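Incident log, structure service

09:12 report received: a user says their structure output differs between two submissions of the same chain.
09:20 pulled the input from the user's history:
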Amino acid sequence: MTLSLTRIDYTAVGSTSRGTTRLLPVLDSKQTQKFVVGDHDGILHIYGMKKDDLQLFFKSLPGPKISKVVLGGVLGNQKDKIFIAYESSVKGYTRKGKVFLEFDTNLLDPISSICVLGPDLVACAKDLYHRYHDCRDADAYLAGERVMDAILLPTDSSNVIAVLACGDSAVRVLHGGKTPTLLRLTTIPTILVAYREGDVESRDRILVGAIDGRVGLLILQNDKTLRVTWLLNNTGAEITSLDTYELQDGLDIIVGRQNGIIEIFAYPEEDDSKPVLKYRHNCGESISTVIGGIVGDAGYSEVLVTTYSGRIFGLTTKPPGLLEAGQDDGMVAKLKLEIEQLEQKIIQERESFDLVTDVLAPPILSVNYRMLINKEDASYTLSIELESPIDNVLLHSDTPVDLLDVESNSAVASLSACDPKSGNYVLATYRCQINTNRLDLRLRTIEGQPGRLQIYVTSQVQPKCCRRIQIPIPALSFHSRIHKDENTMVLGGPFNELNLRGSFTAAEIHAWLSLALPDVPERPHLENGEGFLIFTSTFVGTMLKCNYKKGTAIFMGENISSIMILRDILTGEATKRKIKLDVYCNVIEGSVSRVLDLVLPRIQAAQKLQEQIKILDALQEWELNTIPDQLCPRYQVLLKEETKLRSEFAKDPDMLERLYGLITDLYVDWKRAKGGRRITSIVASEKLRPAVESRDITLLLQIFTGTNSSIDVPASSPPHIQT
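09:34 re-ran on a clean worker, output below:
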């Protein structure tokens, strides 16, 4: 890291959404830039520096929550017009705060993303893209997937190119009324930003940020297809904001993440090389916007940052010691005054909530939460954030879940005894420390047991307010959901098949799938009345294809356990609604080999890692780790790699047990699918244990097919895992 930046706190507004802060352009590069920010109170603010002091130049009246702020203007000129999106409308302001446009898009859902390019305005809501030319309908596209972000690129003709980041891990390119071209990614893109140098934006280069924390550069080809030039593979928290700006010694890539981390990378000189990390800062709460410019002092570049709670600060290249004589005392006095004002504001807020409120309309906490699946270990990360410090978080689950440790979590956890018979499996309370606005939790579910998480959040500032959040727990941990299209060829197999026939509709089956699979689109994407989705198992890597239409649904999966779990859930939902189903299940012998080929190498790696940890523990217990020179070469190598091995083991210490349990469940479900006598997990585990520990695939296949069922197992030997 070669970049040195100093943090300067500017001001605070209400809670903000992503992409709601913009820097207004200036004619002279030596001038400071004003910035505009919109918040959840519906207020648009315009700030700027005057006589070395931050001043508010414009403030609109409160209104509906502002979901997006973008800049626009006449093509070829500076973008100095401000456009805000709220509900299903767009409003335009001049840089002085005068309203010049009020436009109702007539979209049924709230606008999630907008983009303005000359006379063209794009508004996206859920899975719908709509473009307006001079506020008149131009074209529309139903993606069938949630549109995460959208940008417009100019062309040599009067047409424009729209690029959409979609929830099915795809980036779509729309060119007029033609069929969109498509680029498949290995993760869900969340942010699209046109590459820019100064105020000049590229026509063919696009930065993309993903939900798993990766950043990449896309180049638009002449045939309107996209190509990935480089991709940063360092996964982490979700990307919430991106920008390019020359801070110091060349162009930089500015990255804002959902966990509060801001990173700056040196832009590579060649397309085939990758960016190098220059700077990292953690502000402790999720980032709404990062943008490069000159804000606090003319001549010094900086990164302007807005957080979810509304804090606005800069990371400036100006050295902290460059203050004129006599400014120190004035600055200290100013800071003391600001602290007193904030303390008085906190007292007033607490007093207002101590008053008797209307029980029919209690105040509601604004909570920013997200639950994402981790592909590495098939766990879920639950992030909870308030605009004020969190007091307590109570978590309740009506299905078994394992709560995992999080290094960054400093909250004090308390687990209560639960009665599973009454539908209470987990009841945990997290008490946060003072000034903690964000809490990260990790949990792992059990395959085949869907349910619901209920989360209750209270604030230290508003102790009488409580917000309840309900999050469904899917039965299967899958990801990489994609649609069927001409540019996608899905390989895999052999596949077991589940065929359902009955008096149901495609939309009905689609709704039932949301109980079993994560991130199923709210609305089905049907082509000629038929829906098609493909998922990949997060833990195993097997595939599941879903093909459904009115009266018929076909599901094909490499893992028979996934097919049986899906069968149980779908037939259960049909029974609740008194819908008669004809169920056919075709089991393929080769599917077992496919799953074992994926799992057995991981068992071998997990066994080896566990053995290495046992050796390191023994060396530490006998204090032999202090004399490595007297040990054999093998142990010397282990001691050199101890930190790496222990870190890897700490990520998932129960990995071996989980893999054993996976094969046990596979055997139980295999017997169920074949129509044989149902056996318990304990019996199956005892029967499979010798073959699993030896990793003998031939012996395992013989047990599955029943050609070698007379394996002697000591009756007193405990199973490796029970489900």
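09:41 both user submissions now match this output. Likely a transient worker issue. Closing.
09:42 reviewer note: Residues 66 and 86 are 5 Å apart (CA to CA). Residues 709-723 have pLDDT under 50 and may be disordered.
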